[in-house]
Design goal:
Elements lengths: L1 E9 L4 H9 L9 E3 L3 E9 L6 H16 L8 E6 L12 E7 L9 E7 L2 E11 L22 E3 L13 E3 L12 E10 L6 H26 L14 E6 L4 E7 L13 H13 L5 H15 L2 H27 L4 H11 L3 H4 L2 H7 L8 H19 L5 H25 L4
Antiparallel strand pairs: 1-3, 1-4, 2-3, 4-12, 5-10, 5-11, 6-7, 7-10, 8-9, 11-12
Helix pairs in contact: 1-2, 5-6, 5-11, 6-9, 6-10, 6-11, 10-11
């Protein structure tokens, strides 16, 4: 199928276009054009057996070009594709579009339309369960008073003794129990939106980012009602390609979202990382709990779980402060547990209180001296209280600020403790 492929890359990688002109003239690469945000945009014409293969095609092409021209670092590319036989064009007008994407796992609800409201805005989506790595699997979509399973199912295993299988097992009506990766089955969802056709791949990517909370609202409700704790929130990196269709005209786009871009594969971490990993493994040193909580908060940001990210970020500060005070006052000063508890009770019960007089006694320093950072902490803690005590919401900006403040505050506390102990 003849396809028009539009590719947008950072302007610094413009030499890739020259390589294509010299080495792949059959693709009819167009001259690069500057577009906003320091990007260059160009087009190719390629014959593809299936437009869904466009992501692999562009990935391989740009990787080959990049190696030959010798660029280093990540090459973030935005790709959009049209099938020329369909005569599709970028449309205008305020009508309906359908945006279709694949979830990384299966939602076991009846194929059909679902309406939901998020932040007062109504949305409609269609769902479809799709088999993969399967053959002769049933499309039965029955709903009953009890969960129904297919009466007949089987696995076809690779032949033993011929090395590790390259294609894995093939199944018929089988799924892995509590599978968050949809090895044999996943859900395809289509959001029906009242808006004009996106102008380009960048706008599609922004639209998907904006719609992830809608997708995750659907997943969150299903996870809760069906008690499917194994299902994670959907991240932008889970979505490899998106189809946008304008039903009124048949106009469509395939847009391949390379997550955060792709880059030359990493051979190995640096030497200091190797030495630190080996040392911790041999010594039995544990990963600090505060670090684990911060890692969790950062992952939750990627998943769009704003409330949980705020809670984990503040918990990381709490663990850091509690550990410092206990080391300083119980281990170093020799307070008994009862004396420590009484001192903390007298100082005040909140986390902010513990970072005042108790911390000044422990290391002769307090975050209250940090001005803007302390004010940012007060604002973050206010958001946390609303979330925890009132079940209130948190926005993306508030969650990102919570993680940023937590990271900076913990770094300053650890630095102040090291300086007090003469280890800085």
């Amino acid at each position: 199928m003849l396809c028009l492929i539009r590719i947008e890359i950072p302007a610094g990688f413009g030499s890739v276009i020259g390589w294509l002109e010299q080495n792949r003239g059959d693709l009819k690469p167009s001259p690069g054009q500057r577009v906003p945000d320091g990007k260059v945009q160009f087009e190719l014409v390629a014959e593809l057996a299936d437009p869904q293969d466009g992501a692999k095609f562009v990935n391989a092409l740009l990787t080959e070009a990049g190696v030959d021209v010798g660029f280093e670092g990540p090459l973030q590319a935005r790709v959009e594709l049209w099938t020329l036989e369909a005569g599709a064009t970028i449309g205008e007008g305020n009508d309906s579009i359908e945006l279709t994407l694949d979830l990384p796992f299966c939602i076991h609800l009846h194929n059909g339309s679902y309406s939901l409201i998020l932040d007062g805005i109504p949305f409609t989506m269609r769902t479809e369960k799709v088999w993969r790595n399967s053959r002769n699997s049933s499309d039965d979509d029955t709903v009953s008073d009890q969960p129904l399973r297919f009466p007949k199912a089987e696995m076809v295993s690779p032949i033993l003794g011929e090395g590790l299988p390259t294609s894995g097992h093939i199944g018929s009506n089988v799924e892995i129990k509590d599978d968050p990766r949809g090895r044999y089955r996943f859900s395809r969802i289509t959001l029906i939106l009242r808006r004009s056709m996106p102008k380009d791949g960048t706008e599609v990517g922004q639209l998907v980012d904006e719609l992830l909370p809608v997708v995750n609202r659907f997943v969150d409700v299903y996870r809760y009602v069906a008690d499917r704790a194994y299902l994670p929130p959907v991240q932008l990196t889970d979505i490899e390609q998106v189809q946008v269709l304008r039903p009124r005209t048949g106009e469509g786009q395939y847009v391949f979202l390379f997550g955060r871009g792709y880059e030359h594969g990493l051979i190995n971490e640096n030497r200091s990382v190797h030495e630190r990993v080996i040392g911790m493994l041999v010594s039995g040193e544990q990963v600090p709990l505060a670090a684990e909580l911060l890692f969790a908060a950062r992952r939750l940001l990627l998943e769009g779980a704003w409330r949980q990210a705020v809670i984990e970020a503040v918990a990381a500060i709490e663990v850091t402060v509690e550990g410092l005070l206990r080391r300083a006052l119980v281990v170093n000063e020799g307070l008994s547990e009862q004396e420590f508890a009484e001192f903390m009770r007298a100082a005040g019960g909140s986390l902010s209180d513990r970072m005042k007089a108790p911390m000044r006694r422990a290391i002769k320093w307090s975050p209250t001296s940090q001005g803007d950072l302390w004010n940012r902490w007060i604002a973050v803690n206010k958001v946390r209280r609303v979330v925890v005590h009132q079940g209130g919401p948190a926005t993306k900006d508030q969650a990102e600020e919570a993680v940023a403040v937590s990271s900076e505050l913990i770094r300053k506390i650890e630095t102040a403790e090291a300086q007090f102990l003469g280890r800085a």
